[in-house]
Amino acid sequence: MFELDLRDRRPIYEQLVDKFKQLIFSDILKQDEQLPSVRSLAQELSINPNTIQKAYRELETQGYIYSVKGKGSFVNQLAEIDNRSELEELSKQLQKLMREALFLGMTKEDLYQLIEESQSL
Amino acid sequence: MFELDLRDRRPIYEQLVDKFKQLIFSDILKQDEQLPSVRSLAQELSINPNTIQKAYRELETQGYIYSVKGKGSFVNQLAEIDNRSELEELSKQLQKLMREALFLGMTKEDLYQLIEESQSL
DNA sequence: TAACTGTACTATGTTTCTTAATACAGTTAA
DNA sequence: TTAACTGTATTAAGAAACATAGTACAGTTA
Question: Pairing with B33, which of B10, B59, B98, B101 sits 20 to 30 Å away (CA)?
Answer without folding.
Answer: B10
